[in-house]
Amino acid sequence: MLSCTARAANKRRIMEIDMTYNLTAAPQALLCPDKLIPVSMLLKDSETVPAEAGIYAWWFRGELAIVPLEGTLGKDEYRLLYIGIAPRRPSRAGKESRSNLRKRIVGNHLGNSISHSTLRRSLACLLAEVMDFRIYRGSAGKMIMSPEDEQILTKWLSDNAAISWLSDNAPWYLEDHLLGSRLALPLNIQGSKHGFRRKLKSLRMEITVSS
Q: Quick one: CA dihedral 183, 188, 189, 195, positive or negative?
């Protein structure tokens, strides 16, 4: 549980993040929600997540090996470590993704395949030693694990992660704003300015090379 001092600090930091964004209430609705939705609930009822475009935030409790927590936002016993969007930004040629929050969160991040989720791949690498995961490259060059290891990772997420989200028809604008702000998001790689991204990319490469 965050102390009153920590909660006040969170509010000040969210206000700083929010000041330059033209949809003033949006970041607070995502970063300081009334409640977080545990992954365990989503695994029981996937329709809890709307089939709409939007931006989502992943919150974790406990420690994740070498992941730095300094500067991250907290709520209850959780820390915000990663944000993502669905669908992705349209290509320069105008091609649009048909993904949505439910497909991305439940179908990809909780879909028992690290090959379909950047976040899931990062977590597998961070937990590989303690969970004894074997991560390797498949014939298509993508990172994969055994079905048994994938189930263990999903169980870990069920026990240790929660999510917040915000419906938004063009979520890439808010994502760009947050990744470029003072908000610490150590598990984001693409578009992130956080110093840990280089370490995370290196770890992912080292594990798949040595496995």
A: positive
| Structural contact between residues 36 and 176, judged by C-beta atoms closer than 8 angstroms | no
Which helix (H) or strand (E) is 134 found in, with range?
Answer: none
Label the pairing between strands 54-61 and 37-38.
unpaired
Q: pLDDT per residue over 41-81, tens digit each?
A: 999 999 999 999 999 999 999 878 899 999 999 999 999 99
Share of the chain residues as helix, strand and coil, in percent rounded to the nearest 5: 45, 15, 40
The pLDDT tens digits of the residues spanning 145-191 come to: 999 999 999 999 999 999 999 999 999 999 999 999 889 999 999 99
**Is the pTM value of this prediction over 0.85?**
yes
Burial 21-46 (b: 16+ CB within 10 A, else e): eeeeebbebbbbbeebbbbeebeeee
Q: Per the structure block, which two tokens stand in for 56? A: 């989502």
Distance from C-alpha of 51 to C-alpha of 95, rounded to nearest angstrom: 20
Contact 164, 30 (CB under 8 A): yes
Close Cβ partners of 134 (under 8 Å, ≥ 6 residues apart): 145, 146, 149, 211
